[in-house]
Fold:
Amino acid sequence: MKVLVIFFILTCLVSAQQADDLYRQGAEKFFAGKVKEAIIDWDREIAMVPRRGPHHWQRGLALYYAGEYDKGVAQFVSHQTVNGHDVENAVWHFLCVVRGTGGSVKKARRDYIPIEGDLRVPMKEVHDLFGGTGSEKAVLEAASKNAEGPRLRNQLCYAHLYLGLYYEALGETVKSAAHMKKSAVDYRMDHYMGMVAQLHHKLRSRPNIIFLFADDQRADTIGAHGNPHIKTPNLDALAAEGMSFRQNYCAGSFSGAVCVASRAMLMTGRHWMSLPEKRPQTNWGDSVVLPAHLENEGGYQSYIIGKWHNGKGTLDKSFHSGKAIYMGGMADHTSFQVQDLEGGKLMPKRDARGFSSTVFADAAIEFIEKANGEKPFFLYVAFMAPHDPRNPPEKYREIYYENRPPLPPNYLPQHPFQNAPASTSGRDEGLGPWPRTREVISDQLCEYYGLVTHLDEQVGRIMRALEGTPHAENTYIVYTADHGLAMGSHGLLGKQNVYEQSMKCPLIIKGPGIPKGKSTEAITYVHDLNATVCGFSKTSIPEKSDARDLGPLIRGEIENVHEEVFLPFQNNQRTVRDERWKLHVYPLINHRLMFDLKEDPHETNNLAEKPEHVEKLTKMMVMMEKNRNSHGDRYPLSVENPKPKEAIYDNAKRTLDIWQPKWIRDKYFGGRSRTNHGKK
Structure:
């Protein structure tokens, strides 16, 4: 019997020691910003010694910073049973209720825990403040009264901590930040709550931003956005944790290289028609460039990885550091060269080792893991996928060869008229035969989907790397693309057109204050993200920007950002659409298309020439002129001597560029040699 008793006592002692170790370990992780890991350790501690559960007030703080507000409420309710005289417990309970109800201060005050007997200065005044009967003035006066030296400093540390938390609950971020700075920096104290103030200041200061930019990704290539045939589990998870924008557009292009224009607009926030006329792809004139703006005004570290398609001059204006930068338009995903950027200077080229999406994800993960939190960061990762060549790693294309996705609903063997740039010319269009056979489009679609799925895996790796850092709770992730791609829609392969599948691109945003799993049909532009990032970073929107901050839309303050969208393409295509109707004008061939997108989202039924829609056509033309005038569009909508409308395919020549790998040359071009577009 004595042996059993001794064994029981020793077991209890060992368990208590292990629990103590877990508590200390959790505290270290908490103050390192790894709040979710801290919760795991403290949950294990409580499992070993259950009686510690109600006392574990610190666990409640971690739950608050982890965004698990309902659990935080339960923790503080439990703690109240063992300490009914703690104002701080009531306050943190209040904060969890506010966050857990989407900002309902009214409910938090209705559920507010009454406290008596907390004699610490200025806790009575803090309790009154959160209850709605006190004031900032009363808190500060109480903290300052009859105190000096370390005592005064300590009381002001507490006062400003809770004033900062109070204004955060009210959504007054500027006031909140000012008070938290005073608590964490000006009146810094290295006791427990002083360290909480420092952690809060670190987590709630200017947020980090990770901007993930795909190349040539159609908006309809994400599972969570309604495509059951594609595998994108990580983008699906991002959509579940963030907000999806389902009507997001690239605003057209000044050249056939749509990606060049899209990047110019994103970085400057200016529509391509308002950029300097001379070489807008590489000369942004007096435009304020986003990464440099974040550095200059917000104190950010801006860092670039991946594709830069706009020339060295604009890179010099934008970034001073980066890694694995591809200075070009396109390349074979498995054979290309990259450069690092150090102190604003490009290092010598080096061969990239691996598939492009993996190379760029590796560099992003390395940056995230090394980020020390001294400065907020803007990490710009521009992938080359799913841009052609359509050569994903073999297993990813085999996934779709074995279970083929259907062709686009608007698949055609040939475009019915002379799209401009011509349907029979342009690099993109020459990647498949005319007519577009179902077999070729099916194969290319499988390969395209394979690129998207492989890219999705790399996005998942980046997201998981972020989760293991102190930055996780204070980082926005933006996922979008420069434009879409036809991939057989309307008999086209490329993006040099104004149909939905080419101009529309995905957009998902996750981060602090972003509603989870929400989706909006409000019309947005890719370059609106310029102003939106300025909003996230608490920096000003440059004066000459055409972009709109999506913040009010995200917060539910407005329902629409743009009443309509204007998509001009060079001098040969013009498109305008509202929430339902869309008009295409082709000036060089004097041709028009009009679609009811509600009834015909794939743009297959042209209503422009039907008598019953004359009135709607007239209204859409008025809308077109309004947008043309607002953007200074000087190109005419019709010409006196139009070109032939008919597209002639008989003598069409296919283009085999230098980037297509051998197996693609063999499969789609009969093993032909590469055309002389330069030397690799």
In short: Residues 134 and 382 are 50 Å apart (CA to CA).
